[in-house]
Amino acid sequence: MAGSPRLANPAPLLDIARHAFLPEDMASTRYYELIAPQLPGMGIAFDQWQEDMWYAGLSLRADGSLCCDVMGVTLSIARQAGKTYGVMVGLVAICLSRPGTTVVWTSHHDRTSSETLEKIAGIVERPEIRPKMRAQFPVVRTDDGRGVHFANGSRILFGARASGFGRGFAEVDIQVYDEAQYLIEAALTDMLAAMNVSDLGLAFFMGTPPRPKEIALGVHEAFSRRRTRALDPKKKRPYKGVYIEFSPENADGLVAELVADIDHPDFWELLSQANPSFGFRVGRSAIERLVENMSAEDVMREVFGIWTKTVESSAAVDRQAWAARVDDGEGLGAIAALGINADRTGRFFVSAAWRAEDSAHVELAWSSQSEAETLRFVKALASKRTPIKHDSTGAASAVGKQLKAEGFTATAYTLAEATEGNALLVAMTHEGRLSHAGQADLDRAIRSAKRTERKAGGWLLEPRHEKATIGPAIATAAALYAAMTTKQRTGKASF
Question: What is the value of pTM for the model shown?
Fold first, then answer.
């Protein structure tokens, strides 16, 4: 291992990053205005790649606009590699240079937010920086104003997106989305709008490659889309942002067992390609602690930064999680909602959902080729007030329209609702809040369904092959959506 863990890495970003997409229209940068003058007085030196990251992140076009004004700066970098520290130091320098700067740093988990606050507290409490902080309570650890506060009115605020933090700010200059592998695109709209009036308006998206669970839930889309857009060799329009990724050169050919074997002769060489701090600021012990407490798959993503090709090929619902949720449903009470789907052969599927607080049970209640028999079955099972979701087109739509004409609470299952229903199906299965009867037809449909991303956000269920039948899965997701999003009412029957 070359070097000391306390030395800075002198290698330029373009020499060591596996992917480094930088704006082609850079004419100048605010790095030398906002960050470079502050570093000597802070007693801190960047690694060269961190300086290069900020140089590009603060770069300007010839007209003076920020080069990263649309897509921001995206960092797909492993743990213990210096991404968080590098961003923190730059933010502190900007806050010192620019009075009144507001930075909002969000994480998915509150624990991560608290840990990050402690890290930045260690920076601002250095003897060189502490006199420039607010005299009283420069570090606030409570929910009200949690963050670090500077004497010149600048502040860096921390909170968890899962708790709603990040929304409602009127004016923000810089936003940091930590744990960006758990970030829904739709959730960005309100938060990014808060930067519209700032002359900076810079956003950071940083994280590690998403896990299969995050892919299944569809919460990785904001992070993954930035990677896909940046690396697309046939871009239809310029990528107005920075994308940086560290991972081994032959990452696509590596297997989890190899990279997770710390005794493998190539382990440390591969790590040096994935982690620019290893051998400089980070030693072997720190890496060993991570590896010994992770699965092989987690090591690939979080230690080596390797993206696995699972987005399109992975099953929509994890098989083991689904199999573990079998329950006979005894004592369920009244049905909360129904879902109706018809496949391309004209077979109808009706699924039922029962709800108990934030949990639910689902079953495939009916399957038939007959529209008339399906109509009679639903009318016998449901009350006029039972929520019924049906396909917006095709044979199931005709059944739904007839039910509505007869006074039943039947409405079309829209694409937007389907993305929410699919997310509920996956999330509640993984969280142990959804049970099912273990029916062969429904199990087969779940196994045969894959996820297909929508450009507008979210994902839909589609057959994994042309002969697959996933109607029971779609009907079940529709019933679950109706049950969990509609105020509970008393049904007509249960079974």
Answer: 0.68
